[in-house]
Structure formats: structure tokens, C-alpha cells
Design brief:
6 helices, mainly alpha, 173 residues, single chain
Length: 173
């Protein structure tokens, strides 16, 4: 897990607007980061861990994922530190507006057609359009993630090279 300074540097590199955050906001963001990392890793506070080891039941609705893919961890980390959260929200809003318009259009069509076959065809057509709208939403999120993932990998590569240089200079001395 990153220290406060490492978190602050990586967040500022990923999100240019983070540079304007106050010290209090940084502390809140770091606390949220720590709690999200603990949730992802299935970590628990010492108090809950000791209760679990004594055999008491876990809280209802809480679970720890047993298998978390590297892609899922990367996606959640990049989306947590993204500079494009506004764009992601805009895509979601437009998608749900489109879905509402498709459903409303299908309802108007069903009401307008007295024929059951035509009504069924309108419902199936609207269903396909809703699926297409949701698929396009997911595709838009992938396109939004591309620059963040590239920046994240570049930062990680630079940190890896910086770490190797530090190790080499330690052995050279």
C-alpha cells in the first residue's frame, strides 16, 4: 500500500485537478484510498479479525472476494484516480437518457399498434436497442480508460526504473 506522499504524487500525476486540493481534502482522499484498498484485499480491522478467528459469524452482506483479477484491480485503481470522472458520468447520464427514450418510444408504439405481433416486434426492437446502448456505454468507458491506463503504466514503469537505479547505485558504492 502506498504511503501518504506516494499516494499524493501518483494522484497528482493522474489527476491534474488534484493539485488544487487542500491538506484536509488530501487526508480525506488518502483515508478513502486506504479503506478501499482494505476492502479490495478483504482486509478487516483488528477487532473484527479477532472476532472472526473466535468463530463468530461475519456481518451479513459483507464478503471478501476470493479471486480478484489483475485487470479488475487495475481498472478499479485507474478509475479511482482518473482525471475523466466527469466524462464518465456524462456518458452514464446520456446512456440512461437514451434507454429511457427507447423504452418510452416502445411504449408509445405498443399503445399505437392494436396488433399483438406488431407490439411484440416493437418490444423486441426496443430490447435490442437498449442492449446496444448499454454495450456502447461499456465501450465508451473502455475508451475513456485508455489514457488513464497508459499514464498509469508509464508512471509505474518510471518508478520501476527509478527503483532499479537506486539498487544499482547501492551496489556500485
Amino acid at each position: 500500500m502506498k504511503s501518504f506522499e506516494e499516494f499524493r504524487e501518483s494522484r497528482a500525476a493522474m489527476d491534474p485537478s488534484a493539485r488544487r486540493m487542500t491538506e484536509h481534502q488530501w487526508k480525506q482522499a488518502y483515508a478513502a484510498y486506504i479503506s478501499s484498498r482494505e476492502r479490495v484485499r478483504g482486509g478487516q480491522s483488528g477487532k473484527r479479525r479477532s472476532r472472526d478467528s473466535e468463530g463468530s459469524a461475519r456481518m451479513r452482506g459483507s464478503h471478501s472476494p476470493t479471486l480478484v483479477s489483475e485487470a479488475g484491480v487495475l481498472r478499479s485503481q485507474v478509475r479511482g484516480e482518473t482525471a475523466y470522472s466527469d466524462l464518465r458520468m456524462l456518458v452514464d447520464i446520456f446512456t440512461w437518457i437514451a434507454v429511457a427514450l427507447i423504452v418510452a418510444g416502445a411504449l408509445i408504439t405498443v399503445i399505437g399498434y392494436p396488433n399483438a405481433v406488431m407490439s411484440f416486434a416493437a418490444i423486441v426492437g426496443a430490447g435490442v436497442q437498449v442492449i446496444l446502448a448499454l454495450a456502447l456505454r461499456l465501450l465508451a468507458h473502455v475508451f475513456i480508460d485508455i489514457p488513464d491506463v497508459a499514464l498509469y503504466r508509464q508512471v509505474m514503469t518510471q518508478k520501476a526504473y527509478a527503483g532499479k537505479d537506486a539498487v544499482q547505485t547501492e551496489f556500485d558504492a
